[in-house]
Design brief:
The chain has 159 residues and is mainly α. Helix content is 57%, strand content 11%.
Length: 159
Amino acid sequence: MANISESIERFILSTMGDNDSVDISRNSLAEYFSCAPSQINYVLDTRFTFDRGFVKESRRGGSGFIKISKIKHSDSNQMLSSLVIDSIGEELSFKRMTQILDKLISDFIVNKNEKEIIEAALSEDSLSMPFTIKDKVRAKAFKNILLKLMINDTGEKDV
């Protein structure tokens, strides 16, 4: 007999089918499976991860709706994927981040203006917090920026 996490994962995957994304409601799923919403969060956090080929986005204005998207891998997405999974890790210094950004510029994945915006947002001065967590916060934020670049590279346009 499958555990509840496996059942929830299979349900979400079957709901997604051949589509590239699906919107789900944590509360509705929790009711359907007679479990706590935290169980749904657990499944989303462990089974629908970047390294498994998914990106999750919270949808505003709708009581606990989440959009789960399959990552489409173009050449630039493959590079970004490799960076997020293999290179960045749990901590990222400002110097290392600028080296990565320089590589992304040379490969035409980001432009100079985007690089400067990212550097300004994740600079030592912008991250006014204890030194012990600054590189962890920078790594997480930078990964999220790269994920957003990957989503936008799929051809979907914001309206």
